[in-house]
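Re-run with default settings, no changes from the original entry. Doing this only to confirm the output is reproducible before filing.
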Amino acid sequence: MFPKPKSALVPNTYAFESEPMVKPTGFREYDARWLFNKEINLMGVQALGMGLGALIAELGVRQEIVTGHDFRGYSASIKYALISGLMAAGCKVHDIGLAVTPMAYFAQFDLDVPCVAMVTASHNDNGWTGVKMGANRPLTFGPDEMSRLKAIVLNAEFNNKAGGSYQFHENYPARYIADLTSRPKLKRRLKVVAACGNGTAGAFAPQVLEAIGCDVIPLDTELDHTFPKYNPNPEDMEMLHAIRDAVLAHKADVGLGFDGDGDRCGVVDNTGEEIFADKVGVMLARDMSAINANAQFVVDVKSTGLFVTDPVLQKQGAKTVYWKTGHSYMKRRTNELGALAGFEKSGHFFFNKPFGRGYDDGLVSAIAICEMLDRAPGRSMADLKNALPKTWSSPTMSPHCADEAKYGVVDAVVKHFEALQQNGGKVAGQNIRDLVTVNGVRVTVEDGSWGLVRASSNKPELVVVVESPVSERRMHDMFEAMDSVLRTHPEVGEYNQKI
């Protein structure tokens, strides 16, 4: 028998060292995130491993699983607690050691293992931990699997049995790097800033980019789990500005920034200007659809409207579907539709054959960007960006909102705009042209300006994004319109950043 996890325990007590603690809100829509020792303890992680092993058996999948961990001071201990639970449930565990998340996804294919459990808090601040899980490569869990896992763990519905085993794969990164770099070298000698924010990708990104033929300027590639400069998150302006400074100082062709677990890539052009990932997606879609007829793409609801309106994509016959934000949702939809690629504004990109295996890998994205530049001799990254129709876009802005309240707030905001549309009301002085409610609400008005409000899937926050094809003023108008609705809800707090 194993005790039912408690939702809260006090650290430095007998109970904390003798009972599992798992806060229910840590089970997110498509992965799991907790504050270590505040919301989950090591026995709680062990319970998670037992629950995951039980779920894998329940799904009828072979109980064999890849594990790895990111570079945080506590991630290895969390991984070993998870492994003890998985082995207790009868799983054969393949441990690849310190890894970026996509290395674990690659190992599922390379080692022919059906399941994955990667210990990472991605780009979350220090103190957070989490697990990205899947039992059907290249997909990761969605809400159905996460709901069932939550029920198994919190109710201690474990099905432990003998037969678990453990295998450590020595020097595994060499296999991953060899797979990424077994391609023709670039014809164009690109000078590239590789920025890693002292996160896990620092151990691999410079090596991969050098192997494909780039001159690499490493930036904060030394592993340091205190993240002394800034959080390794290529959506944060602090990291983007550090990349800008390095690009300008070294006269680089492009700056590439990788998040904490290496599954996302941010881009700064040769003039030092950041290019938000959705615009990078449009550039890549132009490049890919030029060499692949009738290309189909999937993009998330936070992304630019250019995927539909860009005349080059229209001329090349590209088709785009908007879908729910979240790496698991996007991965699944890209796979279901057999799309050439999926692009998410956060920088998760999903390339199917011939470019990738369907999972998100920041290094595959970086290679795709370098190859796009290789196919555009004489044109800079800024040239390719400036060839896009002009729009004014905000970064992702996140006002605080408790996990227990955020979905209720978003439901109320959706109802507000649905009623406004029905009654002919105006947003930012114009009629509503279109509402997309597949994930929160995306409000588009007559001049093509739009605003989005949705709940963050992995933090106690809302997500707000606005864009206008008309002017910077209209972008601000849309933000003020969306924010004025949010301000009617006292549960909504301060933003992490604002335009």
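The mean pLDDT is 96. The longest strand covers residues 92-98.
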